[in-house]
Amino acid sequence: MATGKYCPRCGFRVDDFYFCPACGHNLRLRAKPAPSPPNPFVAAVLNFIFLGAGYLYMRKRLKLGVGLLFVFFLSLLGVITMQLENAGIGLLILAIADAALSLTLAIDAYETAKLSFSS
Ligand SMILES: [Zn+2]
């Protein structure tokens, strides 16, 4: 297995150079590290604690992640409102959160179905 780096433009072996000695290509421009793959454990913990945050962390199913996170905070707000302010308003917020959850899952189902049959 080759461990050296090669110039992306001309293929010359460049190792630790900043510029390719063969063609002058600026290697630091391409030196941006590829985004590291998400840690599955972190993704799971994030989703466990903050509904949907794990999806945002993975950059997958972003609409589902944003939707779930919104539902999560709205539910929290609903429960807090029920306890501290007004049970009726709290219930109303929880009902809105529930509707938002349904909508989020509907959108995710739609997009998942579309993706699975388009490829
Ligand atoms: Zn080169």
Distance between the termini: 34 Å
Q: State the order of secondary-structure elements, H for helix, E for strand.
A: HHHH
Query: What count of domains describes the coordinates?
Result: 2
Largest sheet: none
Number of helices: 4
Bound molecules: zinc ion
Beta strand count:
0
Give me the Rg, rounded: 24 Å
Gross geometry: elongated
The class by helix and strand makeup works out as mainly alpha
What is the overall pLDDT average?
A: 89
Low-confidence stretches: none
Write a concise keyword list for the protein shown above:
elongated, binds zinc ion, 2 domains
Write a brief caption for the model.
The protein is mainly alpha-helical and 119 residues long. It has four helices and no strands.
